[in-house]
Write a structure and sequence with these properties.
The strands form two sheets. The protein has a two-stranded antiparallel ribbon. Strands 2-3 form a two-stranded antiparallel sheet. The protein is an all-alpha fold and 304 residues long. The model has no long low-confidence stretch (mean pLDDT 87). Helices cover 72% and strands 3% of the residues.
Length: 304
């Protein structure tokens, strides 16, 4: 097991990154919010860590908490402004946020130079991005040291979402998703709970951004564009949003499938797309739909 992980470090790391991103959008989808802003918040986390490391030598541990606070500070007023929108209108508004973050990353140095009056000031490095120095990761307890923070982060997110799902707040979030108007008539502050889910999802995505920096090393705006936002949504949709295990399954399948089909060469993308399409047609509630697998298990269980 550890030998396979050591030989496939990059695949394992990207599976963990994508699972964490899928879990971050699960929270908003479970509340009925079609938000695609998490790619932008991931960028905020990644740039926070990269700028602090390259400009001040700040550790990843400190950058992680700075990025969470920054993401919450951005998500709160943005959420207040857009969370009264629904469905596709909210999706378009949050995609606009991703584009704004992308443009700010591209032109951040121009803005800083205009504010500071220093024409030589270089922080974000435009389209070239920030390149962090490569340090060969040490093996700690059978895993690369860069994999451990991601693994622990994914486990922490799973525990948080599992506890939240069974809590009073989790049932309230589900009620908001099922019928927002009925929830409001029962005295639930719908806006407050939607804002809570949005801010927590933003913080989760920013945390992934920070922990991904030692792995991807080159932090540039092309990593946080429209296609990244769609990928994050696909992790949750393919796996299903009925249970927190859905994004876990969806992200794992969508990350491993192209690698598994590599032997097909040019036909790989066609077969990859066909498998995903058939999965969605025959399992519309996701690959990890608990109702489907529960029913299948009962049918196979011998009568006593």
């Amino acid at each position: 097991m550890f030998e396979w992980i050591a030989n496939n470090q990059s695949i394992v790391n990207f599976v963990l990154i994508n699972i964490a991103l899928g879990l971050s959008i699960y929270l908003t989808l479970a509340t009925g919010l079609l938000s695609l802003a998490n790619a932008g918040f991931m960028a905020i986390g990644a740039y926070t860590a990269a700028v602090l490391a390259s400009q001040a030598g700040v550790s990843l541990f400190v950058s992680f908490f700075v990025a969470l606070v920054l993401a919450a500070a951005v998500a709160f007023p943005f959420g207040l402004a857009v969370l009264r929108l629904r469905d596709v209108y909210l999706a378009i508004a949050t995609l606009g946020f991703v584009q704004i973050v992308n443009v700010l990353a591209l032109n951040g140095d121009k803005i800083l130079r205009a504010i500071s009056g220093n024409p030589e000031l270089t922080v974000f490095r435009g389209a070239e991005g920030i390149t962090l120095p490569y340090v060969s990761p040490r093996i700690v307890f059978g895993l690369p040291e860069t994999t451990w923070p991601l693994l622990l982060y994914v486990l922490a997110l799973i525990v948080i979402l599992a506890v939240l799902r069974r809590s009073h707040e989790g049932r309230v979030l589900a009620a908001v998703r099922l019928d927002e108007s009925a929830a409001a008539t029962l005295g639930i502050n719908v806006v407050r709970y939607k804002l809570l889910a949005f801010v927590l999802g933003a913080m989760m995505a920013a945390g992934v951004g920070v922990l991904s920096t030692p792995i991807i090393r080159v932090i540039d705006p092309r990593n946080y564009v429209f296609s990244r936002a769609v990928d994050i949504l696909a992790y949750a949709i393919l796996g299903g949003v009925a249970h927190w295990s859905g994004p876990l399954v969806g992200a794992t399948v969508l990350t491993l499938l192209p690698e598994t089909l590599r032997f097909l060469q040019e036909q790989r993308e066609i077969v990859n797309g066909l498998i995903i399409m058939l999965s969605i047609i025959f399992l519309p509630r996701g690959l990890a739909d608990p109702r489907f697998w529960g029913g299948l298990f009962k049918r196979r269980k011998p009568a006593t």
